[in-house]
Amino acid sequence: MSALLQVRDVSKSFGAVAAVQGVSFALEPGEAHALVGENGAGKSTIVKMLAGVHRPDTGTLLVDGEEVTFTGPADAKAAGIAVIYQEPTLFPDLSVAENIAMGNQPLTRLRQIDRRTMNANATRLFARLGVQIDPTRPARGLSIADQQLVEIAKALSSQARVLIMDEPTAALSGVEVDRLFAVTRALRDEGAAIMFISHRFEEITALCQRVTIMRDGKHVCTEPVSDLSVDDMIRRMVGRDLSALYPKQDATIGETVLRVEGLNRAGVFRDISFEVKAGEIVALAGLVGAGRSEVMQAVFGVDKYDSGTVTFLGKKLKGGNPRASMAAGMGLVPEDRRQQGLVMELSIERNVTLPRSRALAKLGLLFGGSERREAAEWTKQLQTKFGRLSDPVGTLSGGNQQKVVLAKWLATSPKLLIVDEPTRGIDVGTKAEVHRLLSSLAARGLAVVMVSSELPEVLGMADRIVVLREGHIAAQLTREEATEESVMYAAMGQS
After folding, report:
1. How far is CA 158 from the centre of its chain?
2. How far is Cα 221 from Cα 420, in angstroms, rounded to an integer?
3. Pairing, β 193-197 against β 32-36
4. Which pLDDT score is estimated for 353?
5. SS3 80
6. Neighbour order of strands in the sheet with 330-333
7. 58-63 and 162-166 as β-strands: parallel, antiparallel, unpaired?
8. 8-state DSSP, 169
9. Residue 439 backbone class (left: φ over 0; alpha: ψ -120 to 50; beta: rest)
10. Distance (Å, rounded) from C-alpha 78 to C-alpha 74?
11. Residue 215: C-alpha distances to residues 208, 219, 236 (Å)
């Protein structure tokens, strides 16, 4: 049986970052094929190449044995490839039938949209899927599960033969997952090829015949699911050595700086309790969507929480008040440095001194000399590369922008520093510098909370690891207890 879709030795880089390197696998008709790997393994880049969003730098894509070149998503759709993302992309104010027929609406002889035919076509597609959804109702208000079924109906309406499902069950209940799987199995049995991306191994073993495992942008193996245990899959996903990238210094652990007790926010996280001590690096680990960033934004006061307490240096902090957190001695380096951490149009020196602008002002006026002296001191300590301190921070490389965000908070002499994905999108050399800085700060008594999706970073830098899964704490591990396998097991809900 010839493959419907082949990925042959494809590679894709973004600047100096090699996202995918020489990956090959094939999707057979009538097969559900799992694609698994850690966060950052290259799965999303593969999906975007198959969807026509990115073009491979090298290698080829083949449909029915013929080489294809996708210049955009329309080409992928025309080739019979449809992608269903974790977050559906429907037009909320259009009807279900209008969403399904988008770009391919039936027309009357007067060249007007034939709504009767359009609704009838949608009804037939839902009958084929074995579900009942009113085709005339607006898409707004549909559950995530029903939105995904509409996306599947849209794929069928365009004669898609390859269906790529990217974390489709992340927001679904058990009953909704069962219904989605019943539909998926039916499509598979009709001869479609399904590529299924999930972090839930029980779903992979229940649905898929083969699995392709990726690690660090490279192909590890493609094997029958029946030949691999969960242990085998996890070991192949995470197997790598820690290196000098993680220069962890010994630190004297002091008194408790931060205590979080019973923190809850409806639909986001629940019953979150942990503490951080002076000189300690505590990592929040877990898969994308586990609630790590949301917890720390609530702790800092960016977001409100429904119940629970945050105690900092022995005093309870009022929720939803980042100004009070900053005044008490907290700093937050956010995940998205460009949107949340920096003002890209302002100068380097102004960005470094923003949190201290009142302290540096004299008689209500802020003078350039005081800003420049403070910015020069911290950018020198962090070995930041730039032309002039007056240059817009947007002209810096990603790694140097990250150093400016760190400098901004270190200039406030914090007692607790929260760093969310501190090395995302920066080169290996700068990663090592950031790790060395965090380690030396902890050795000097600073309490650090690090949110990271990179397991080697978590294991290489953390004194303790709090593993979150679907909004609650799945495990708390000491440095001695933690291994890549134990963290991954907890993050995926495996005992």
Report:
1. 29
2. 32
3. parallel
4. 85
5. coil
6. 330-333, 416-420, 447-451, 281-285, 464-469, 472-478
7. unpaired
8. T
9. alpha
10. 6
11. 20, 7, 8
pLDDT value of residue 242: 46
DSSP 337: I
State the DSSP string of 403-464: HHHHHHHHTT--SEEEEESTTTT--HHHHHHHHHHHHHHHHTT-EEEEE-S-HHHHHHH-SE
Sheet holding 17-27, edge to edge: 66-68, 58-63, 5-14, 17-27, 218-224, 210-215, 32-36, 193-197, 162-166, 81-84
Amino acid at 117: T
Q: Which CATH number fits domain 256-491: 3.40.190.290, 2.60.40.10, 3.40.50.1000, 3.40.50.300?
A: 3.40.50.300
| Model pLDDT for residues 417-438, shown as the tens digit of each residue | 999 988 876 655 677 788 888 9
Judge residue 170's burial from the number of C-beta atoms within 10 Å of its C-beta, 0-12 exposed, 13-18 middle, 19 or more buried: middle
Nearest Cα residue to 416 out of 492, 318, 314, 338 = 314
CATH superfamily of 5-90+142-238: P-loop containing nucleotide triphosphate hydrolases (3.40.50.300)
Residue with tokens 């911290």: 378
| Between 399 and 323, the higher pLDDT residue | 323
> Which neighbouring-strand residues pair with 66?
63
CA distance to 71, 247, 458, 495, per residue, from 420 (Å): 35, 19, 12, 27
Contact between 296 and 451 (Cβ < 8 Å)? yes
pLDDT category at 76 given cuts 50, 70, 90 is very high
Q: Which DSSP symbol is given to 476?
A: E
Identify each DSSP E strand in 28-97 by its residue range. Answer: 32-36, 58-63, 66-68, 81-84
| CA 131 distance to own-chain centroid | 31
Check the CA dihedral 24-26-27-33 and report its sign.
negative
How many other CB atoms are found less than 10 A from the CB of residue 245?
18
Amino acid identity for residue 154 in this structure? K
Taken as a whole, the chain contains a residue count of 495
DSSP-derived secondary structure for 237-279: HH-----TT--PPP----SEEEEEEEEEETTTEEEEEEEEETT
Which DSSP category does 170 fall into?
T
The residue ranges of every structural domain in the chain are 5-90+142-238, 256-491
**pLDDT tens digits, 134-157:** 999 999 988 877 888 888 888 888
Domain pair 5-90+142-238 / 256-491, same fold:
yes
Please tell me the chain's helix, strand, coil percentages from 3-state DSSP, rounded to the nearest 5.
35, 25, 40
